[in-house]
Amino acid sequence: MKKIRFIAVLSGFFLIFLSACNAAETTKISLAEVTRSLFYAPQYVALEKGFFEEEGLDVELQTTWGGDTTMTALLSGGADIALVGSETSIYVYAQDSRDYAINFAQLTQTDGTFLVAKEPKPDFTWEDLEGSNFLGQRVGGMPQMVGEYVLKQHGIDPHADLDLVQNIDFANIAGAFASGDYDYVQLFEPTASVFEKEGQGHIVASFGEESGKVPYTVFMTKQSYMEENDKAVEAFTRAIYKAQQWVQESSAEEIAEVIEPYFEDTDLEMLASSIDRYKSQGSFATDPILDEEEWDNLKAIMKEAGELPVDAPYGDLVDTDYAERVMTD
């Protein structure tokens, strides 16, 4: 009887030892996303399908609501990796930071906003915007810069031809449009479709279709973190690539079912239609590589908006090594 107890005790210690080893092999990563959006569907797929766990990562997601707060979290150590517009890395670089943010995996490759009108516009043309009361986005942020770029392509000066309002926080823009006296606004999904369903707005154009490919939302981390956690960054990139492939091969309905826990206030049918809208215009990057042509397009958009502080070199702020490694595994 004592022998049996002794063996049981040994077995218990062995299980505890194995658990401790497994815990030791798991790397915790704090991930900050700039907002909660269907635009980031592959990220939520990576979380829900267990792709991060397969790579030995314990990823904790936080929504930091806005480019400034997201970069503050990253640079201060409040987050290890940030999902945010790649323009923010250029702003940090321009401040002569010694430990600037490096873009290592692209998630979205078009603008993710849609032009929403307060009233139905069955025969909409861009000229309809002239003289309108337009609720804009944050100065220097990607939605606003891409919006201005597209408007200028259609011969509209956003600061001269519109009554442009830009004093509303990002998180409150949708509510301000619904309750305020505005004619147009840029909205992400699923908010744009929800507004349309509820009769609070009408989608009349896609900024993503109009602006072409751009590194709109990218995973980035500090140089120091990358140097000290090379394997973790590679594992993170591999999990994202798995998710990108899964999203590419799956239907909008399948994707919606997987990521539904992140959008509890939106019904499944609405999620699926919004995801389909993004898929059909090629918004989700199919691999993590941010190429130089996209980077140059980003800088052209920033320059057109008067927001490019320095001519940030692609080789300084973009690292495609991780993406290339995981794509050749």
TrEMBL record:
It comes from the Bacteria. Keywords: Signal. SUPFAM superfamilies: Periplasmic binding protein-like II. The keyword Lipid metabolism does not apply. The keyword Thylakoid does not apply. Residues 1-23 form the signal peptide. It is found in: Periplasm. Its main location: periplasm. PANTHER family: ALIPHATIC SULFONATES-BINDING PROTEIN-RELATED, TAURINE-BINDING PERIPLASMIC PROTEIN. Belongs to the bacterial solute-binding protein SsuA/TauA family. This is ABC transporter substrate-binding protein. It comes from Oceanobacillus longus. The lineage of its organism: Bacteria, Bacillati, Bacillota, Bacilli, Bacillales.
